[in-house]
Specification:
Elements lengths: L7 H19 L11 H6 L24 H12 L1 H13 L5 H12 L5 H13 L1 H4 L20 H7 L3 H26 L2 H13 L3 H24 L10 E5 L8 E3 L3 H4 L1 E9 L2 E8 L10 E3 L4 E3 L6 E2 L5 E3 L8 E7 L2 E10 L13 E2 L2
Antiparallel strand pairs: 1-10, 2-3, 3-4, 4-9, 4-11, 5-6, 6-7, 7-8, 9-10
Helix pairs in contact: 3-4, 4-5, 9-10, 9-11
Bound molecules: FE2/S2 (inorganic) cluster (FES).
Protein backbone atom coordinates (compact mmCIF):
# COMPACT_ATOMS: atom_id res chain seq x y z
CA UNK A 1 0.00 0.00 0.00
CA UNK A 2 2.92 2.29 0.69
CA UNK A 3 4.28 1.66 -2.78
CA UNK A 4 4.41 4.95 -4.73
CA UNK A 5 2.60 5.17 -8.05
CA UNK A 6 4.95 5.69 -11.04
CA UNK A 7 4.69 9.07 -12.70
CA UNK A 8 4.02 9.63 -16.37
CA UNK A 9 7.62 10.48 -17.07
CA UNK A 10 8.70 7.24 -15.45
CA UNK A 11 6.23 5.28 -17.57
CA UNK A 12 7.45 6.97 -20.74
CA UNK A 13 11.09 6.39 -19.81
CA UNK A 14 10.36 2.74 -19.16
CA UNK A 15 8.55 2.39 -22.51
CA UNK A 16 11.41 4.05 -24.36
CA UNK A 17 13.93 1.77 -22.63
CA UNK A 18 11.90 -1.24 -23.63
CA UNK A 19 11.67 -0.05 -27.22
CA UNK A 20 15.41 0.61 -27.31
CA UNK A 21 16.11 -2.82 -25.92
CA UNK A 22 13.81 -4.43 -28.44
CA UNK A 23 15.46 -2.52 -31.28
CA UNK A 24 18.88 -3.55 -30.12
CA UNK A 25 17.79 -7.14 -29.94
CA UNK A 26 16.22 -7.08 -33.42
CA UNK A 27 19.40 -5.94 -35.15
CA UNK A 28 22.79 -7.46 -34.46
CA UNK A 29 25.50 -5.19 -33.14
CA UNK A 30 27.07 -3.03 -35.79
CA UNK A 31 30.51 -4.27 -34.99
CA UNK A 32 29.42 -7.76 -35.87
CA UNK A 33 27.91 -6.76 -39.24
CA UNK A 34 29.68 -8.68 -41.95
CA UNK A 35 29.63 -5.74 -44.39
CA UNK A 36 33.09 -5.54 -45.93
CA UNK A 37 33.06 -1.75 -46.43
CA UNK A 38 31.89 -1.13 -42.87
CA UNK A 39 34.53 -3.25 -41.28
CA UNK A 40 37.46 -0.82 -41.52
CA UNK A 41 35.33 2.06 -40.34
CA UNK A 42 33.93 0.00 -37.51
CA UNK A 43 37.36 -0.96 -36.41
CA UNK A 44 38.63 2.57 -36.42
CA UNK A 45 38.61 3.65 -32.82
CA UNK A 46 38.54 7.36 -33.70
CA UNK A 47 35.48 7.19 -35.97
CA UNK A 48 33.31 5.06 -33.68
CA UNK A 49 34.84 4.47 -30.32
CA UNK A 50 31.61 3.23 -28.86
CA UNK A 51 29.21 1.08 -30.81
CA UNK A 52 25.49 0.94 -30.59
CA UNK A 53 24.51 2.58 -27.25
CA UNK A 54 24.86 6.20 -28.47
CA UNK A 55 23.84 5.46 -32.00
CA UNK A 56 20.31 6.20 -33.17
CA UNK A 57 18.13 3.61 -34.72
CA UNK A 58 19.88 1.63 -37.35
CA UNK A 59 19.15 2.54 -40.96
CA UNK A 60 17.59 -0.65 -41.98
CA UNK A 61 16.68 -0.78 -45.64
CA UNK A 62 13.04 0.05 -46.10
CA UNK A 63 12.63 1.18 -42.50
CA UNK A 64 11.23 4.61 -41.62
CA UNK A 65 13.70 7.37 -40.76
CA UNK A 66 14.43 7.54 -37.12
CA UNK A 67 14.25 11.19 -36.12
CA UNK A 68 13.36 14.56 -37.60
CA UNK A 69 17.01 15.37 -38.00
CA UNK A 70 17.51 12.28 -40.11
CA UNK A 71 14.55 13.22 -42.31
CA UNK A 72 15.86 16.75 -42.81
CA UNK A 73 19.32 15.41 -43.58
CA UNK A 74 17.88 13.10 -46.21
CA UNK A 75 15.88 15.97 -47.78
CA UNK A 76 18.92 18.21 -47.81
CA UNK A 77 20.98 15.50 -49.34
CA UNK A 78 18.40 15.01 -52.12
CA UNK A 79 17.85 18.70 -52.80
CA UNK A 80 21.46 19.75 -52.87
CA UNK A 81 21.99 18.42 -56.41
CA UNK A 82 24.96 16.50 -57.72
CA UNK A 83 27.50 17.40 -55.03
CA UNK A 84 25.02 16.55 -52.36
CA UNK A 85 24.18 13.31 -54.06
CA UNK A 86 27.53 12.02 -52.99
CA UNK A 87 26.51 12.33 -49.40
CA UNK A 88 24.04 9.49 -49.45
CA UNK A 89 26.55 7.44 -51.29
CA UNK A 90 29.13 8.17 -48.68
CA UNK A 91 26.59 7.52 -46.02
CA UNK A 92 25.70 4.28 -47.62
CA UNK A 93 29.32 3.38 -47.98
CA UNK A 94 29.71 3.91 -44.30
CA UNK A 95 28.74 1.01 -42.09
CA UNK A 96 25.17 0.95 -41.00
CA UNK A 97 26.31 0.28 -37.51
CA UNK A 98 28.06 3.65 -37.31
CA UNK A 99 25.49 6.31 -38.09
CA UNK A 100 27.29 8.79 -35.91
CA UNK A 101 30.31 8.46 -38.12
CA UNK A 102 28.18 8.60 -41.24
CA UNK A 103 26.81 12.03 -40.34
CA UNK A 104 30.16 13.78 -40.27
CA UNK A 105 31.18 11.91 -43.40
CA UNK A 106 28.01 12.94 -45.24
CA UNK A 107 28.35 16.49 -44.01
CA UNK A 108 31.92 16.62 -45.17
CA UNK A 109 30.97 15.20 -48.54
CA UNK A 110 28.01 17.57 -48.94
CA UNK A 111 30.08 20.59 -48.04
CA UNK A 112 28.35 23.58 -46.48
CA UNK A 113 24.83 23.00 -45.32
CA UNK A 114 22.29 24.31 -47.92
CA UNK A 115 19.73 26.77 -46.73
CA UNK A 116 16.00 26.30 -47.10
CA UNK A 117 15.91 28.91 -49.89
CA UNK A 118 18.57 27.00 -51.82
CA UNK A 119 16.60 23.81 -51.47
CA UNK A 120 13.38 25.48 -52.69
CA UNK A 121 15.24 27.01 -55.62
CA UNK A 122 16.71 23.65 -56.55
CA UNK A 123 13.28 22.01 -56.37
CA UNK A 124 11.68 24.73 -58.53
CA UNK A 125 14.40 24.59 -61.12
CA UNK A 126 14.16 20.86 -61.24
CA UNK A 127 10.36 20.91 -61.76
CA UNK A 128 9.67 24.04 -63.81
CA UNK A 129 12.71 24.04 -66.05
CA UNK A 130 12.86 20.39 -66.87
CA UNK A 131 12.42 20.88 -70.63
CA UNK A 132 14.82 23.81 -71.02
CA UNK A 133 17.42 21.98 -69.00
CA UNK A 134 17.59 19.42 -71.76
CA UNK A 135 18.95 22.08 -74.10
CA UNK A 136 22.61 22.77 -74.00
CA UNK A 137 23.43 26.04 -72.17
CA UNK A 138 25.35 27.54 -75.07
CA UNK A 139 23.06 26.34 -77.81
CA UNK A 140 20.82 28.87 -79.60
CA UNK A 141 17.23 28.90 -78.67
CA UNK A 142 15.02 26.85 -80.94
CA UNK A 143 12.76 28.80 -83.21
CA UNK A 144 9.29 29.01 -81.79
CA UNK A 145 6.68 28.15 -84.37
CA UNK A 146 3.86 30.65 -84.63
CA UNK A 147 0.51 29.20 -83.58
CA UNK A 148 -1.91 28.71 -86.45
CA UNK A 149 -4.41 31.54 -86.88
CA UNK A 150 -7.96 30.21 -86.46
CA UNK A 151 -10.16 30.66 -89.48
CA UNK A 152 -12.97 33.18 -89.23
CA UNK A 153 -16.42 31.72 -88.75
CA UNK A 154 -18.54 31.46 -91.84
CA UNK A 155 -21.32 33.54 -90.32
CA UNK A 156 -19.09 36.62 -89.91
CA UNK A 157 -17.85 36.34 -93.47
CA UNK A 158 -21.37 36.04 -94.78
CA UNK A 159 -22.43 39.16 -92.89
CA UNK A 160 -19.74 41.32 -94.42
CA UNK A 161 -19.99 40.16 -98.00
CA UNK A 162 -23.37 39.05 -99.36
CA UNK A 163 -23.41 35.91 -101.33
CA UNK A 164 -23.75 36.21 -105.11
CA UNK A 165 -27.24 34.73 -104.91
CA UNK A 166 -28.43 37.39 -102.47
CA UNK A 167 -26.86 40.18 -104.45
CA UNK A 168 -28.47 39.01 -107.67
CA UNK A 169 -31.85 38.68 -105.96
CA UNK A 170 -31.62 42.20 -104.57
CA UNK A 171 -30.65 43.49 -108.00
CA UNK A 172 -33.59 41.67 -109.54
CA UNK A 173 -36.00 43.19 -107.04
CA UNK A 174 -34.58 46.68 -107.56
CA UNK A 175 -34.83 46.48 -111.33
CA UNK A 176 -38.30 44.95 -111.16
CA UNK A 177 -39.57 47.68 -108.86
CA UNK A 178 -38.04 50.42 -110.99
CA UNK A 179 -39.43 49.11 -114.24
CA UNK A 180 -42.82 48.36 -112.65
CA UNK A 181 -42.99 51.90 -111.31
CA UNK A 182 -42.22 53.23 -114.79
CA UNK A 183 -44.92 51.07 -116.39
CA UNK A 184 -47.53 51.98 -113.78
CA UNK A 185 -46.68 55.67 -114.12
CA UNK A 186 -46.96 55.34 -117.87
CA UNK A 187 -50.34 53.64 -117.58
CA UNK A 188 -51.68 56.26 -115.16
CA UNK A 189 -50.37 59.34 -116.92
CA UNK A 190 -50.27 58.06 -120.47
CA UNK A 191 -46.65 59.12 -120.74
CA UNK A 192 -44.71 57.34 -123.45
CA UNK A 193 -41.44 58.57 -121.95
CA UNK A 194 -42.05 56.60 -118.77
CA UNK A 195 -42.88 53.54 -120.82
CA UNK A 196 -39.63 53.88 -122.78
CA UNK A 197 -37.71 54.37 -119.55
CA UNK A 198 -39.26 51.23 -118.13
CA UNK A 199 -38.33 49.30 -121.26
CA UNK A 200 -34.78 50.66 -121.06
CA UNK A 201 -34.42 49.53 -117.46
CA UNK A 202 -35.97 46.23 -118.39
CA UNK A 203 -33.67 45.51 -121.30
CA UNK A 204 -30.28 46.92 -120.29
CA UNK A 205 -29.89 46.19 -116.63
CA UNK A 206 -30.90 42.58 -116.57
CA UNK A 207 -29.39 39.33 -117.60
CA UNK A 208 -31.73 36.71 -119.07
CA UNK A 209 -31.98 35.06 -115.68
CA UNK A 210 -32.85 38.34 -114.01
CA UNK A 211 -35.28 39.22 -116.79
CA UNK A 212 -37.09 35.95 -116.23
CA UNK A 213 -37.47 36.58 -112.54
CA UNK A 214 -38.42 40.22 -113.05
CA UNK A 215 -41.05 39.23 -115.59
CA UNK A 216 -42.51 36.76 -113.17
CA UNK A 217 -42.58 39.34 -110.39
CA UNK A 218 -44.15 42.03 -112.55
CA UNK A 219 -46.79 39.75 -113.97
CA UNK A 220 -47.67 38.59 -110.48
CA UNK A 221 -47.80 42.19 -109.24
CA UNK A 222 -49.99 43.37 -112.10
CA UNK A 223 -52.28 40.40 -111.62
CA UNK A 224 -52.60 41.20 -107.94
CA UNK A 225 -53.38 44.87 -108.68
CA UNK A 226 -56.00 44.01 -111.25
CA UNK A 227 -57.58 41.47 -108.92
CA UNK A 228 -57.75 44.05 -106.14
CA UNK A 229 -59.27 46.60 -108.51
CA UNK A 230 -61.81 44.02 -109.69
CA UNK A 231 -62.86 43.36 -106.11
CA UNK A 232 -63.55 47.06 -105.52
CA UNK A 233 -67.03 48.31 -106.51
CA UNK A 234 -67.44 50.72 -109.40
CA UNK A 235 -68.76 53.83 -107.78
CA UNK A 236 -70.03 56.64 -110.01
CA UNK A 237 -69.73 59.98 -108.33
CA UNK A 238 -72.85 61.89 -109.28
CA UNK A 239 -74.39 65.02 -107.85
CA UNK A 240 -77.22 64.45 -105.41
CA UNK A 241 -80.70 64.25 -106.87
CA UNK A 242 -82.05 66.85 -104.38
CA UNK A 243 -80.43 70.22 -103.90
CA UNK A 244 -81.43 73.66 -102.72
CA UNK A 245 -81.19 76.56 -105.12
CA UNK A 246 -81.99 79.48 -102.80
CA UNK A 247 -85.08 81.55 -101.96
CA UNK A 248 -87.75 82.70 -104.44
CA UNK A 249 -86.49 86.25 -104.22
CA UNK A 250 -83.31 85.24 -106.03
CA UNK A 251 -85.30 84.70 -109.24
CA UNK A 252 -87.02 87.79 -110.65
CA UNK A 253 -90.09 87.49 -112.85
CA UNK A 254 -89.56 86.49 -116.52
CA UNK A 255 -85.93 85.50 -116.04
CA UNK A 256 -83.96 82.29 -116.62
CA UNK A 257 -81.08 81.43 -114.25
CA UNK A 258 -78.11 79.56 -115.70
CA UNK A 259 -76.54 79.27 -112.23
CA UNK A 260 -77.24 75.52 -111.88
CA UNK A 261 -76.98 74.50 -115.52
CA UNK A 262 -73.37 73.32 -115.55
CA UNK A 263 -73.43 71.63 -112.13
CA UNK A 264 -76.92 70.08 -112.11
CA UNK A 265 -78.19 70.47 -115.70
CA UNK A 266 -81.26 72.59 -114.84
CA UNK A 267 -82.58 76.10 -115.46
CA UNK A 268 -84.61 77.88 -112.80
CA UNK A 269 -87.37 79.80 -114.64
CA UNK A 270 -89.67 82.44 -113.16
CA UNK A 271 -92.41 83.43 -115.61
CA UNK A 272 -96.07 84.27 -115.84
CA UNK A 273 -96.43 83.38 -119.50
CA UNK A 274 -97.64 79.78 -119.08
CA UNK A 275 -101.43 79.90 -118.91
CA UNK A 276 -101.30 83.24 -117.12
CA UNK A 277 -99.88 81.72 -113.89
CA UNK A 278 -96.96 83.23 -111.96
CA UNK A 279 -94.80 80.18 -111.52
CA UNK A 280 -91.26 79.11 -110.73
CA UNK A 281 -90.20 75.76 -112.18
CA UNK A 282 -87.03 73.80 -113.05
CA UNK A 283 -86.41 72.85 -116.71
CA UNK A 284 -83.99 70.08 -117.73
CA UNK A 285 -81.25 71.36 -120.05
CA UNK A 286 -81.67 68.44 -122.44
CA UNK A 287 -83.01 68.85 -125.94
CA UNK A 288 -85.95 66.58 -126.60
CA UNK A 289 -84.73 65.91 -130.13
CA UNK A 290 -81.47 64.01 -129.66
CA UNK A 291 -80.30 65.10 -126.26
CA UNK A 292 -78.06 68.07 -126.96
CA UNK A 293 -77.79 70.94 -124.50
CA UNK A 294 -79.60 74.07 -125.67
CA UNK A 295 -78.60 77.59 -124.63
CA UNK A 296 -80.76 80.39 -123.24
CA UNK A 297 -80.69 83.43 -125.48
CA UNK A 298 -81.75 86.28 -123.24
CA UNK A 299 -82.00 88.77 -126.12
CA UNK A 300 -84.38 86.51 -128.05
CA UNK A 301 -86.06 85.17 -124.95
CA UNK A 302 -85.79 81.56 -126.11
CA UNK A 303 -83.82 78.34 -125.72
CA UNK A 304 -81.86 77.39 -128.82
CA UNK A 305 -80.40 73.98 -129.49
CA UNK A 306 -77.03 74.18 -131.30
CA UNK A 307 -77.31 70.70 -132.83
CA UNK A 308 -80.33 70.93 -135.14
CA UNK A 309 -81.76 74.34 -134.40
CA UNK A 310 -84.71 73.44 -132.23
CA UNK A 311 -86.17 76.41 -130.35
CA UNK A 312 -88.15 76.56 -127.12
CA UNK A 313 -90.06 79.41 -125.45
CA UNK A 314 -89.27 80.57 -121.95
CA UNK A 315 -92.02 78.25 -120.80
CA UNK A 316 -90.15 75.28 -122.35
CA UNK A 317 -92.65 74.65 -125.09
CA UNK A 318 -90.99 73.83 -128.45
CA UNK A 319 -91.84 76.06 -131.39
CA UNK A 320 -89.15 75.42 -134.03
CA UNK A 321 -86.79 72.77 -135.25
CA UNK A 322 -87.02 69.00 -135.03
CA UNK A 323 -87.68 68.81 -131.30
CA UNK A 324 -90.95 66.80 -131.04
CA UNK A 325 -92.03 67.97 -127.58
CA UNK A 326 -91.43 70.58 -124.89
CA UNK A 327 -88.54 70.46 -122.45
CA UNK A 328 -89.11 68.42 -119.29
CA UNK A 329 -89.72 69.85 -115.83
CA UNK A 330 -88.19 68.51 -112.63
CA UNK A 331 -89.63 68.34 -109.15
CA UNK A 332 -89.59 71.61 -107.20
CA UNK A 333 -90.83 72.56 -103.75
CA UNK A 334 -90.23 74.86 -100.83
CA UNK A 335 -88.18 73.28 -98.06
CA UNK A 336 -87.11 75.33 -95.02
CA UNK A 337 -87.77 78.57 -96.95
CA UNK A 338 -85.61 77.53 -99.87
CA UNK A 339 -86.40 76.20 -103.30
CA UNK A 340 -85.43 72.53 -103.51
CA UNK A 341 -85.03 70.73 -106.83
CA UNK A 342 -85.61 66.98 -107.07
CA UNK A 343 -84.09 65.55 -110.24
CA UNK A 344 -85.55 62.13 -109.59
CA UNK A 345 -88.97 63.49 -110.55
CA UNK A 346 -89.69 64.43 -114.20
CA UNK A 347 -92.80 65.97 -115.64
CA UNK A 348 -93.73 66.02 -119.37
CA UNK A 349 -96.17 68.55 -120.80
CA UNK A 350 -97.51 66.23 -123.55
CA UNK A 351 -98.35 63.74 -120.80
CA UNK A 352 -100.39 66.37 -118.93
CA UNK A 353 -97.96 66.26 -116.00
CA UNK A 354 -97.23 69.97 -115.81
CA UNK A 355 -100.41 70.43 -113.86
CA UNK A 356 -98.88 68.45 -111.01
CA UNK A 357 -98.19 70.84 -108.09
CA UNK A 358 -94.89 69.01 -107.55
CA UNK A 359 -93.67 70.38 -110.90
CA UNK A 360 -93.76 74.09 -109.90
CA UNK A 361 -93.95 76.60 -107.10
CA UNK A 362 -96.69 79.18 -107.40
CA UNK A 363 -95.69 82.74 -106.58
CA UNK A 364 -98.46 84.86 -105.32
FE1 LIG B 1 -81.56 69.56 -130.27
FE2 LIG B 1 -81.50 68.06 -132.46
S1 LIG B 1 -80.73 67.68 -130.51
S2 LIG B 1 -82.39 69.97 -132.16
Amino acid sequence: MDEKKPSTSDILAKIRAQKAAAAGAASPPAAETPAPEAAPVAEAPSAAPTPAPAAPKPAAPGAKPGSTKDILAAIRAKGAGAPAAAAPAAAESAPASTPAAAKPAAAAAAGPRPSVQDMLKAVREGKGAAAPAAVAPGAPKPAVAAPPVPAKPASAASKKAPTPQRRSLACILLVAVASLACFIGSALTGSGLLFLLGMLVWSTLMTPFMAAWASLIEVASLGTLHTARFMMPNVLVEPPSKFKVGPISDYPLNTVSNKWKDQFGVWIVHTDQYEGQNLIFALASVCTHLGCTPSWLDGEQKFKCPCHGSGFYITGVNFEGPAPRPLERMGLKIAEGMLEVDKSMKFQEEMGQWVDPASFVSVS
